[in-house]
Write a structure and sequence with these properties.
The protein has helices at residues 11-21, 36-50, 64-78, 94-102, 112-120, 139-142, 148-156, 173-180, 217-226, 230-233, 291-303, 317-328, 362-369, 390-400, 411-415, 418-434, 437-459, and strands spanning 26-29, 57-60, 85-88, 107-110, 133-137, 163-168, 191-194, 205-211, 284-287, 308-311, 334-337, 352-355, 379-385, 405-406. It is 40% helix and 14% strand. Helix 4 links the parallel strand 3 (85-88) and strand 4. It contains 17 helices and 14 strands. The protein is α/β, with parallel strands linked by helices. The protein folds into 2 domains: 2-194, P-loop containing nucleotide triphosphate hydrolases (Rossmann fold); 205-236 and 260-440, P-loop containing nucleotide triphosphate hydrolases (Rossmann fold).
């Protein structure tokens, strides 16, 4: 375990590992970044090593990105034990995944919908009838109506006496109901371990709100990225990809704009080369509520010479993984994401989280800001609060049991770049239009409608 820099167990690991090793059903509740993954991965792998066969364990997650991350952890820990792991998620080649399942891996990490599809089409070549342990990660999200039909089908295909483990950072009503549920005859009551804290968010996280009119969020975002709070100011780096302009490159005739639109790769900035490249911001995730907003901000930052990558559901899975890889490796300083990036992703070096859209639900806030200040590190969260969001802050503070402090930026300095940012905003809008992003949205809506009809027919 030294290679993973693990020297002593965290409280959630101390509490849950013995119970899982003993085969008990378990609910583990702890803050983000507290080591929940290893709390179930280590005992599962130890139990598999005693009597390895596939499929031994199934881990279900709400997002594809989290599935890949969990599978990576199982792979790293399981290779010395010759334990195999497969990832089953949408957006990837289903035939390749079916072949992998026929090889009966010991651990399957999956999103529910794709695992259901594979199981229905398996023709009996493989099954889940010998599964010993089922894990629901991000259980508060999994135990919602969205996943209920798929979970019901998967549960029906697994042994009734299997071990079931739930892990989450936020405790929902569905989880509380399970905590109080009486066990079946002959089975122990479910083991519940909560790592209780004074606040739902970690103490090393500085939490701010920025109260501004909605129509001037862009210049405030630009200023914040280039002038982050003092506690993380030292984490800025020079931009290595953008040399200072030379006289030979400054002629207007040499400038061409890339109209290809935003994608998962860091787009080449297209602002005039006489603009000196700004320093990179500290490692930052910007959360939005909609795919179109994510694409817009990614394109806007490109125009403003701030390298970024996008993460949203309109991108292919290959593009989504490439975005995460580029951000994780430090190739780009900014990740612009919808809530597909808020659940469970472990990127230790994130210095700042910016909520472009104030979360409607306090639980979403908890998961978003949990991407920074992980594993004892410090971090900053800034939530943009507009005239439409004033009532939301109180609800967030009530749930997290902490007060957000106001971040005041110098208005005159912010507005010095108003024309520059406004121009970039117009160019970004044109880039999205030229890339046909609106048409992609319509096509996506049609596919989603077909999927819902298919699911309704299955469950009728």
């Amino acid at each position: 375990m030294g290679a993973m820099s693990i020297r002593k167990p965290t409280p959630i690991q101390q509490g849950c590992i013995p119970a899982i090793l003993a085969g008990r059903d378990c609910i583990g509740i702890a803050q983000t970044g507290s080591g929940k993954t290893l709390a179930f991965a280590l005992p599962i792998l130890q139990r598999i090593a005693r009597d390895p066969y596939g499929v031994w364990a199934v881990v279900l997650t709400p997002t594809r990105e989290l599935a890949f991350q969990l599978a990576e952890q199982f792979h790293i820990l399981g290779v010395p034990l010759n334990i195999t792991t497969s990832v089953v998620v949408g957006g990837m080649d289903i035939i390749t995944q079916a072949q992998a399942m026929c090889a009966r891996p010991h651990v399957v990490v999956a999103t529910p919908g794709r695992l259901v599809d594979l199981l229905r089409s398996s023709g009996g070549e493989w099954g889940l009838d010998r599964v010993q342990t089922l894990v629901l990660d991000e259980a508060d999200r999994m135990l919602t109506p969205t996943f209920a039909p798929d979970l019901a089908y998967l549960f029906s295909r697994m042994p009734v006496d299997r071990q079931t483990c739930l892990f989450t950072a936020t405790e929902s009503d569905a989880i509380r109901t399970l905590e109080e549920k009486e066990p079946r005859a002959g089975k122990d009551k479910i083991f519940v371990h909560k790592v209780l804290m004074d606040t739902t968010t970690v103490s090393t996280l500085k939490q701010h709100y920025l109260f501004i009119p909605s129509h001037i969020r862009e210049p405030y975002l630009y200023y914040l990225l280039l002038n982050p709070p003092k506690s993380i100011l030292h984490l800025r780096r020079p931009n290595p990809n953008l040399p200072k302009p030379s006289a030979s490159t400054s002629s207007a005739s040499s400038r061409k704009r890339d109209r290809s639109g935003p994608g998962s790769k860091a787009s080449k900035p297209t602002t005039a080369p006489e603009d000196e490249a700004p320093p990179w911001p500290p490692s930052t995730i910007i959360f939005t509520s909609r795919c179109a907003t994510t694409a817009h901000i990614h394109s806007l930052l490109t125009e403003l010479l701030i390298p970024s990558v996008a993460l949203h559901s309109y991108l292919s899975q290959k593009e989504r993984l490439a975005s995460l890889a580029a951000f994780r490796s430090g190739q780009v300083p900014v990740l612009v994401a919808t809530d597909v990036g808020s659940r469970g992703l472990d990127i230790p070096e994130v210095a700042m989280v910016v909520n472009w859209d104030c979360p409607r639900e306090a639980e979403d806030y908890v998961h978003r800001v949990g991407r920074t200040a992980r594993a004892g590190r410090g971090g900053v969260a800034v939530t943009m609060v507009t005239e439409r969001d004033t009532e939301l802050v109180g609800g967030i503070e009530k749930v997290i049991k902490a007060t957000l402090t106001e971040l005041v930026l110098p208005e005159a300095a912010v507005l010095e770049d108003l024309n520059k940012v406004s121009t970039a905003k117009r160019v970004a809008a044109m880039s999205l239009h030229d890339a046909g992003f609106g048409e992609k949205q319509k096509a996506r809506a049609v596919l989603e409608g077909k999927r819902r009809k298919r699911d309704a027919a299955r469950n009728a």
